[in-house]
């Protein structure tokens, strides 16, 4: 993750912590929002029919990924090469995953949907400080808003090729990575690759999709984060596009 992106996340985290402390001083039982909007996200597995919170995320997740029928992914296990990972990655047209990023002073829960150059990213900290962002990789714009707020959403520009862009595994150039070895993550064999910037990523030999990453954030902390509840090639347009009635203010004035 990059410096600007991490600073935005840290500001979100600090704001959320302050908000929760103020809420606790006024009421011992603050209400926690249960959902982000009226739309239903993709069902990853039976029983999940709304955005989860970090409290609901299981400590151990054995299932690696679900995929759309009709798209075949071959798993060569320990015989997998980096070229095989690139070939599998090319078959991914959409994906969903969840992450809990554990910072030294708290953690942020993320949900990410991606399909056809569009990404939706939902984040929360302890049920507070929720934010939702809609990235359009074709136009290079992102719409950001706080679910439940009466304030209009804000539109910014971003460069999808810069470190400022959010984590997008299908854009990882594995040909530029260094192969360090292999390891099993949640019953799925992975190749361990080192990115040019020193980040480590454990990539599934079946899907060419990461299951774990280790990186240094903008504050110098070394973090290890897993990709959970992964779903491959099942995301719909409704999952990634902003609501049609969402009021948007163009912050950059384009």
Helix and strand layout, with pairings?
Elements: H1 3-26, E1 65-67, H2 82-89, E2 94-103, E3 106-115, E4 118-125, E5 128-136, E6 141-145, E7 153-157, E8 178-185, E9 188-194, E10 200-204, E11 210-216, E12 222-226, E13 228-232, H3 237-240, E14 248-250
Features:
254 residues; outer membrane lipoprotein receptor (LolB), chain A; alpha+beta; single chain; disordered N terminus; globular; five-stranded antiparallel sheet
Structural description of this entry:
By secondary structure, the protein is an alpha+beta fold. It has one domain (3-30, 73-235): Lipoprotein localisation LolA/LolB/LppX (outer membrane lipoprotein receptor (LolB), chain A, Clam). The chain has helices at residues 3-26, 82-89, 237-240; strands spanning 65-67, 94-103, 106-115, 118-125, 128-136, 141-145, 153-157, 178-185, 188-194, 200-204, 210-216, 222-226, 228-232, 248-250. A hairpin with a 2-residue loop joins β8 and β9. The longest helix has 24 residues, at 3-26. The chain is globular. It starts with a helix and ends with a strand. Residues 1-62 have low confidence and may be disordered.
In short:
The protein is an alpha+beta fold and 254 residues long.
């Amino acid at each position: 993750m990059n410096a600007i992106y991490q600073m935005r996340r840290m500001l979100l985290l600090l704001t959320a912590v302050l908000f929760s402390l103020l809420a606790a001083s006024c009421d011992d039982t603050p209400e926690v929002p249960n959902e982000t909007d009226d739309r239903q996200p993709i069902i990853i597995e039976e029983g999940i029919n709304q955005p989860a919170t970090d409290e609901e995320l299981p400590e151990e997740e054995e299932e690696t990924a679900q995929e759309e029928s009709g798209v075949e992914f071959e798993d060569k296990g320990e015989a997998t090469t980096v070229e095989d990972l690139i070939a599998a990655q090319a078959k991914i047209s959409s994906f969903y995953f969840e992450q809990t990023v554990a910072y030294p002073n708290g953690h942020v829960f993320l949900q990410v949907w991606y399909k056809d150059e569009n990404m939706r990213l939902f984040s929360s900290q302890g049920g507070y400080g929720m934010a939702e962002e809609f990235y359009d990789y074709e136009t290079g714009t992102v719409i950001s808003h706080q679910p439940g707020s009466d304030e209009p959403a804000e539109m910014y520009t971003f460069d999808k090729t810069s470190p400022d862009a959010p984590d997008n595994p299908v854009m990882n150039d594995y040909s530029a990575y260094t192969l360090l070895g292999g390891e099993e993550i949640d019953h799925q064999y992975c190749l361990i690759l080192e990115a040019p910037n020193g980040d480590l990523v454990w990539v599934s030999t079946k899907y060419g999709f990461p299951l774990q990453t280790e990186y240094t954030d903008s504050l110098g902390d070394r973090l290890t984060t897993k990709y959970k509840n992964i779903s491959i090639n099942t995301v719909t347009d409704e999952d990634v596009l902003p609501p049609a009635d969402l009021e948007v203010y163009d912050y950059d004035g384009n």
